[in-house]
Design a protein that fits this description.
Blueprint: E1 3-4, H1 10-18, E2 50-51, H2 58-68, H3 81-84, H4 133-142, H5 151-159, H6 164-172, H7 179-191, H8 199-204, H9 212-222, H10 230-233, E3 246-247, H11 260-264, E4 273-274, H12 296-305, H13 329-340, H14 345-348
Antiparallel strand pairs: 1-2, 3-4
Length: 355
Amino acid sequence: MKKLGIFSSLLAVFFFISCKDSDDGVQYSATPAPLEVPAIFNGQILPPVIPDNNPQTVEGIALGKKLFFDTRLSADNTIACASCHIPQQGFSDARQFSIGITGEQGFRNSMPLQNLAFNYGEKFNWDGSANSLENQMLGPVTNPIEMANTWPNVANTLQSSSEYPTLFGDAFGTQTIDSTLVTMAISQFVRTFVSANSRFDQAQLGSIELTPQEQNGLNVFLDESRGDCFHCHGLPANPLWTDNAFHNNGLDSEFDDLGLGNISGDPREFGLFRSPSLRNLKFTAPYMHDGRFATLEEVINHYSEGLVFSETIDPLMKTISQGGVQLTDEDKADLKAFLLSLSDDSFINNPDFKE
């Protein structure tokens, strides 16, 4: 798929949007709203991944926001996207497993939603089951243990409302609502969830200094003989703090959840899950794909002395024979302090992300 980044010509975007005909044959214009790349990202990572057929617009983002918080997407009008991706919790869920409309629990923890416009691997979800953000948005609506609805029912519900046809007309030039346009609008909104103003970001830009504890925690993170965390979660030069790749990080010897392997069918990928970003850990507990760790201390202890061997263990888990990297109590505390410095209070308090 050809992509349109932040440095693409605004004229080209405007032309793409404005040259479409509306339902009555009259040309319409949505207002371009290209993502602003934060200063900490400039020169460090590639421009955002924006599909050519779904450029960011003021009207599309506003529509996506309304849909993100609308319980009418669920079969019984009780839950919305925001019910399991809560802004104050970094767009994750404090529960180990989210609960759908039937009261049934899922089996994975709700992934945080941040900086997804910069996911260059184009595999979304813990298991990589979606190949685009738009595609990822399709699943929860019809999942029987999430919203348990059908897309025709969603389209009919929104079509019969007094406001949505006009809003879709403003965003896409048509008042005929379908699943494609719903997911395109929500994706536009979610792509605005850019987090880039943590204490660590501010230190990188020179406006503050890290504490000695945070600095030593960074040293632990980068030290192959101590934390050895950077292979999967990146260096300071990668402000996403994830490689967006898939790893078996030594959680289990056998797998009830095959992760990426369940999608690919490849036994070599059994038990592999996408590396989550380390941003906003202050807000996104519990941790891991199944939310098994309630605290950062538990996460650090896992890598320090809790690694478990399996046939698909990642080669990056080099200390598997001794159960982990065997951190001292001081290094554990310092590593935690560094990890918390990656949290961005302005992100979870951004009024643009709240209903």
